[in-house]
Amino acid sequence: MSVAAAVIRPVVICGPSGTGKSTLLKKLFNEFPDTFGFSISHTTRAPRPGEQPGVAYHFTTREAFLDLARAGGFIEHAEFSGNLYGSSVAAVHAVTQSGKMCVLDIDTQGVKLIKANHAYLNPLYVFIAPPSLSSLKTRLVGRGTESEASMSARLAAAIGELEYAKSGAFDVVVVNDDLERAYNVLKGVVCEGKTTGDTLPDFSA
């Protein structure tokens, strides 16, 4: 299978923490290792068990992160739960130079910044949604890495992200209710150029 578009567009993957974005992207990269390249973000948070520097994130200090931000080195950056996250110009450039489709995993703050300041990138915006807020909370609890404060912050952020998704800011929505089904929808969009995804669930109930 090859990428359908003649001009390779970056792909922006967005969605609340705990929706399974990393799992979906891992499957995509495993199946198409020569097609996609991941834009590795910078962060000031500490590595979680098993995370390798330069693979999961570029782990850095707050001072170094802010220095790079002041130098215009980020396409987007934001702060969440006291930690800074950002997609650097260099990381995206490294992927595009390799001839691969660049994939960015960012939050809605980052999406807004790209739309406002880097529209020339013309990325494909894909929102990964949970089937319900209760399922999202179950997934976060299952991680075993979230404190009560962190859990509350992530759920509050999720509600904000879902509200933003309702605005039509994304080209395609993928609901991760079943991993294989959701993966096939995602694959159809980014590999085959399909423009139809899922309908965003009603989270107001």
Automatic annotation (TrEMBL):
UniProt-listed PROSITE patterns: GUANYLATE_KINASE_1, GUANYLATE_KINASE_2
Superkingdom of origin organism: Eukaryota
Short name of any one Pfam family annotated for the protein: Guanylate_kin
Span of domain Guanylate kinase-like: 8-191
Enzyme Commission code(s) on record: 2.7.4.8
Keywords from the UniProt entry: ATP-binding, Kinase, Nucleotide-binding, Transferase
A GO CC term attached to the entry: cytosol
GO molecular-function terms, A-Z: ATP binding; GMP kinase activity
Family (UniProt): Belongs to the guanylate kinase family.
Protein name per its UniProtKB record: Guanylate kinase
Record organism: Sporidiobolus salmonicolor (Yeast-like fungus)
Taxonomic path: Eukaryota, Fungi, Dikarya, Basidiomycota, Pucciniomycotina
